[in-house]
Specification:
Number of helices: 12
Helix content: over 70%
Radius of gyration: 23 Å
Shape: elongated
Oligomer: single chain
Length: 244
Amino acid sequence: MKRCPPAIAVLIVASCSARAQALSPLFPSSQGKPGALGVPLQIIVLLTVLTIVPAAIMSITPFLRISIVLHFLRQALGTQSTPSNQVLIGLALFLSLLIIQPIYTDVYSKAWQPLERGEITTQQAMDEAARPVRTFMLRFAREKDISLFLQVTHTPPPPRASELTMTVLIPAYIISELRAGFQIGAVLFIPFLVIDLVVASVTLSIGMIQLPPVMVSAPFKVLLFVLVDGWNLVIGSLVRSFYQ
């Protein structure tokens, strides 16, 4: 059976395409050329690039929006550290892998496999891997945010959106996802805020000043969340938001 690389390896190829283009002169195809780096220096440069891979993967995948919404949900419930950070991060990671499965398949078939067979060069594999990732980010990056980074970098708008550089598209996608995550989090807060207000009004009206309203409202918020099958609703809405 042919070995299939892990999803994380394919994502590394895709997320580092822009970085690889900048470093490609440091990795010549033939040894002995003037200015060519030796193997130890190449390893050092590669390890330096790999240090940014976790942040890149968390930023250019659905992990960003999902993790923000889950943390907002925990704060709205007022359950402090339940679920724990490990559980929320694990859930966000596996949901992200589920959503980007088609992108992973596309990158694997068009970039990784031809590279393993020696049909294309490393630079060509990077370019092929960047295409589906660019298409995914273009679906969710707002035009206003893209225009902002085009102005910041003094880059003329390309004739087609597919020709946007990663240095412009990635930050535009990140702030667009931050905005979407905060919007969903604000909507999640509203029903739980209503419960807090009602409980605070009742406790103050009957003179229960020494008992914090948060302690009284917490069981009601958890009960409401369980009765409406909140996890199913929140996760289902999150996942469907990436397929619209």
